[in-house]
Design goal:
The protein is an alpha/beta fold. The protein is built from ten helices and eight strands. Helix 8 (171-180) links the parallel strand 6 (164-168) and strand 7.
Length: 219
């Protein structure tokens, strides 16, 4: 078997627990348009496909228009740009995993549907010097589960798809892994359930961050 050389990570729900800050920023935007707030737990299912889709899902049925979603996104970013780390924290065991991967020589990249500039701000604060590459939502590039961002990351890291593990907490992440040719690894400490991960093609499921090392060492 080809040994793995790189790990591609989702961000929200995989590396960091952003749920409360995403909810706060979304509810700030919803309130600005007179819409009711959504409970924090709702955002486990609303998040995952980028800010615009999350806000569209959070709006009352029948209210979404392109203009309103764009306005909500502007309000969201206005708030989130200041409050992105009020309650956001790394998940237990993940910082230690990243240090070990770095020591063992694995290449490490983030592939997220979060706006790239914001992803870099958050990661530079919570995970400084942990990643070789951070790829986020950018104009003109399709978002996950399209594999374009993952393939761009692989090209820049100098690795082949079969040399990569893609680790994430949602069906979107697993689909991205499958579409990109990487090994799909689902994590159970994030926003979604095991059933969703398996239904979307997860080959391995882990409950604690250090379990990824066992998968890498099997190759």
């Amino acid at each position: 078997m080809q040994p793995y050389k790189a790990v591609l990570f989702d961000l929200d729900g995989t590396l960091i627990n952003t749920l409360e800050d995403l909810a706060a920023a979304s509810n700030y935007a919803l309130a600005a348009y007179g819409y009711p707030p959504r409970p924090v737990e709702d955002f486990k299912m609303l998040a995952g496909n980028g800010v615009a889709v999350m806000l569209e899902r959070a709006m009352p049925a029948g209210e979404a228009t392109a203009e309103r979603v764009a306005g909500l996104k502007e309000k969201f970013l206005e708030y989130y740009g200041v409050h992105y780390a009020d309650k956001t924290r790394p998940y237990p065991g993940v910082p230690e995993l990243l240090r070990t991967l770095k020591e063992k020589g694995y290449k490490r990249a983030v592939v997220t549907n979060k706006v790239e500039e914001m992803a870099k701000v958050i990661l530079n604060k919570l995970y400084p010097d942990c990643f070789d590459l951070i790829m986020g939502q950018r104009d003109g590039v399709p978002t996950k589960p399209d594999p374009t961002l993952a393939h761009m990351a692989m090209d820049q890291l100098g690795v082949k798809p079969e040399e990569c593990v893609f680790m994430g907490d949602s069906g979107v992440d697993v689909q991205t892994a499958v579409n990109s040719g990487a090994l799909p690894v689902g994590v159970l400490w994030g926003f979604r359930e095991e059933k969703e991960l398996r239904e979307n093609g997860a080959k391995r499921i882990i409950r604690q961050a250090h379990e990824l090392l066992d998968i890498l060492e099997e190759a």
